[in-house]
């Protein structure tokens, strides 16, 4: 039996999930020590509760999808609105280096998936489903490519398999990021635990140039006028994103709505700032961005159907476990070293775990959890949103197309 929960009920439960996650982090040292994000901790408990209801009471909870989609678009819009060209120039060579590093992993991920599928006697395309289609791409990409694989390549159950794999990745991506960064930081003596993020008002200059999501606990003073103006800008960007999704459908420049939302944010931000000379209220953007991030991630985990994971055959689950192990090794021995073997590199590794197995919101939550414990990393908050939310999706689409042509 399905029980539908409306938008307000979904929002109330999502907030409750965040509170549960916060209490768990405070009360359970291992979660705190390994920098598990609050939405992940609370979301897993909520998902387990939903699984119990389904398994023992045949009750399936269906949460409002529209509000979750809106929060996701607000999250990606906030990344775009924070992408001032002045800030983008700060990325420089590090941005290109990180992009090459994570692009290499997309290829590795598919090689692992396809190779293991062949060894286990499965169709190689199933290995691609348990590769970058679902793990780097997430649920949206899993649904889109799953339909194509079912219709054009006769891979039965590709959508269900994709959703189950993406579900696994979303959970694991939020679980391994903190421990990987924690291992790198402690092993290389890169930082010590800090209380700086508990109250940052005295530590950050009001004129400091910071990126979105960099200081989630910092008090940001905004007025009603600024809030209304910023919400108007968000609405404009999301409207543009929906329009471009409709306009590009079926054409070569077709992209997911969240990519258009990010791109719209970049365009609107820089037109207002550089052309029209209008001040942008970064504090309000940060507040809305962080709020939508937390709520979206809580809702995403809250909506997970864990019984899909229980339907995975042992061989497919084995592929996903190996993918997890390979990602951890890649971030420790390649991402960390290529990015400089310093504290920023360790935080970037946590972020890479987030969108390498899950999604960009997971990556942001990972690096927030790490920096809350060890201190700020401006480079990580500059590079992760850009690479994880924009560039990697475009690269992943190209890699998937080429791999499909090779596999036939």
From TrEMBL:
Q: Name one GO molecular function term.
A: glutamate:sodium symporter activity
Pfam families of this UniProt entry?
Answer: Glt_symporter
- Coiled-coil residues are none
The UniProt entry's GO CC annotations, sorted and at most eight, read:
plasma membrane
UniProt record, GO biological process: L-glutamate transmembrane transport
Bilayer topology annotation: Multi-pass membrane protein
Q: Does the keyword Transmembrane apply?
A: yes
Q: Where does it reside?
A: Cell inner membrane
**Main subcellular localisation:** membrane
For whether the record's keyword set contains GTP-binding, the answer is no
Which residue ranges traverse the bilayer?
Answer: 7-25, 40-58, 70-88, 94-113, 125-148, 160-185, 227-246, 258-276, 288-308, 314-333, 345-368, 380-404
Question: What keywords does the record list, in alphabetical order?
Answer: Amino-acid transport, Cell inner membrane, Cell membrane, Ion transport, Membrane, Sodium, Sodium transport, Symport, Transmembrane, Transmembrane helix, Transport
Q: InterPro entries in the record, alphabetically?
A: GltS (IPR004445)
Q: Which family does it belong to?
A: Belongs to the glutamate:Na(+) symporter (ESS) (TC 2.A.27) family.
Q: What does this protein do?
A: Catalyzes the sodium-dependent transport of glutamate.
**HAMAP family for the chain:** GltS
What is the name of this protein? Answer: Sodium/glutamate symporter
Organism of origin? Acinetobacter rudis CIP 110305
